[in-house]
Design a protein that fits this description.
Length: 486
């Protein structure tokens, strides 16, 4: 199996024990001299057994160096005897003085700019100077901005060029670039951040430095998507099942534009990596259902979709939100037929859960904080409605909570001590710590299905919809009980 060269970054000194430990998985360590200074080579070699890279990025490259160009060149020259690779800016450093002193095998020529620049012309300018490797990065404000560097890699078909996008909207390109020939993978110095993934995320989510072939792409799209566990779970399942596929997370500020670019025009097909399935999270579930060519029955009824499946060139809107509630209740041997159920929240998840429970035979009441939209949606779905202000938990046997209330700084949707003798409570939000509802339910021996169990059921169903295979359930064993993103 092919290997990518994995680069760690030292941007703080002294490094922590955890950082030093993570470096052991890497081939190169980039010393950010703009942040840690120039005299760290000897001490870093005592902490890291791989090769060292000297980097002195200026402000326009995302760096902190503010000195003169003359001083910068002097520092680059001085570093060549202590470091294995020297980063040279394609715009500022390809001058005779430096090129005569720094041999080809020691050069990593880098460029950073706009996705709307002529990247091929930029690369050919860079390539006129022989180097060991070349790296082009663009700042992405929209997922579509990440297409240009990937298209460049596809056209060049070389083994010495890296090209990808930075920023939250560009992170999706970084795991794809190695599939198109990029030989290097760069980890961000922060645990998470908009410019790149941490070393641990590269390893756990994408199996680096090992490179697997991929014949298809799958993705999750939404906002605040970077911490989603879906790439880790899906990609681990692909590896376990020896399936040639890759799953990425895409930060999407405008779903309609995303759909027009990636789902209708299908630019990833032309890279040999067709997008075949998509998970969609709030706030785009309604739009995903509306813009798809076809809709599953439950999607048409609820007007919400969190799974898009591509078949014969067309997209079908499906959902796993119904499975999230029905499957988890069934696992707990809880029947919903002829049971009174309250669903709190009339967003995509709540509507779909309500439709699923009604279809399964429950007597469903939709509960919402804002009466006017809640009542209209309940009438549309053929359900009873109750404003949250008038909600009495003791009137219902099953309560499904499908709003962000009770997480972070939000108060629970109702006082948790009002829980009485429910046969079950299902909560969609996923939190690091047990919620107030969970704590009260546990104290009163009320069966409680938390967001992590809902997520597991949904991810398992999504994987089966997309691939036709069952996701190995042992992949969930190391996941914290209350962590994740749905």
């Amino acid at each position: 199996m092919a290997l990518a060269k994995l680069f760690a970054t030292c941007a703080f000194y002294p490094p922590t024990e955890q950082q030093i430990g993570s470096w052991s998985s890497c081939h190169y360590l980039v010393a950010r001299a703009d942040r840690i200074g120039d005299s760290r080579a000897a001490s870093l070699r005592g902490l890291f057994s791989g090769k060292l890279v000297y980097s002195l990025p200026i402000l326009s490259q995302g760096g902190a160096y503010r000195g003169s160009l003359t001083e910068r060149h002097q520092r680059l020259l001085a570093a060549r005897s202590d470091f294995d690779l020297i980063e040279l800016s394609a715009d500022d450093d390809l001058v005779p003085e430096l090129l005569q002193a720094i041999p080809q095998e020691q050069r990593l020529i880098v460029w950073h700019g706009s996705a709307h620049d002529d990247l091929e012309a930029r690369f050919h300018h860079m390539a006129s100077t022989p180097a060991r490797w070349y790296r082009l990065t663009v700042q992405a404000k929209d997922p579509a901005d990440g297409l240009a560097p990937l298209q460049l890699l596809h056209r060049l078909d070389r083994g010495d060029v890296c090209a990808y996008a930075l920023g939250e909207c560009g992170l999706w390109t970084q795991p794809i670039a190695p599939l198109l020939g990029a030989p290097l993978v760069f980890a961000a110095p922060e645990e998470t951040g908009p410019q790149g993934f941490s070393i641990d995320r590269w390893i756990s989510d994408y199996g680096m430095p090992h490179l697997r072939e991929a014949e298809a792409l799958y993705a999750i799209a939404g906002v605040s998507i970077i911490a989603s566990p879906s790439p880790r779970l899906h990609n681990a399942a692909y590896r376990s099942l020896n399936r040639n596929a890759l799953f990425v997370a895409v930060q999407v500020p405008d779903y309609r534009r995303f759909a027009e670019t990636f789902l209708q025009d299908s630019p990833l097909d032309r890279l040999g990596l067709p997008l075949k399935g998509l998970c969609v999270i709030a706030p785009y579930k309604e739009e995903a259902a509306r813009l798809a060519e076809h809709q599953a029955e439950v999607v048409a009824a609820a007007g919400s979709s969190n799974v898009l499946l591509r078949k014969h060139g067309a997209w079908t809107a499906a959902t796993s939100d119904d499975i999230g509630v029905l499957a988890t209740l069934a696992e707990s041997d809880i029947s919903v037929r002829n049971v009174s159920a309250a669903v709190i929240g009339c967003g995509g998840s709540g509507r779909t859960a309500a439709v699923a429970l009604k279809t399964a035979g429950a007597r469903v009441t939709l509960v919402n904080r804002s009466p006017q939209p809640g009542r209209a949606i309940a009438e549309q779905l053929g359900l009873s409605f109750q404003p949250l202000a008038d909600f009495h938990p003791e009137d219902f046997q099953i309560i499904v909570h499908a709003t962000p209330a009770g997480t972070g700084m939000h108060l629970p949707p109702f006082p948790p001590n009002l829980l009485q003798e429910q046969i079950a409570v299902v909560e969609y939000p996923i939190t690091e710590q047990p919620t107030a509802l969970l704590s009260v339910a546990a104290n009163r021996n009320i069966p409680f299905i938390d967001g992590s169990r809902v997520l597991q059921a949904q991810v398992t169903a999504q994987f089966r919809m997309m691939t036709g295979q069952d996701m190995p359930q042992d992949l969930f064993s190391n996941r914290p009980a209350h962590a994740g993103t749905s």
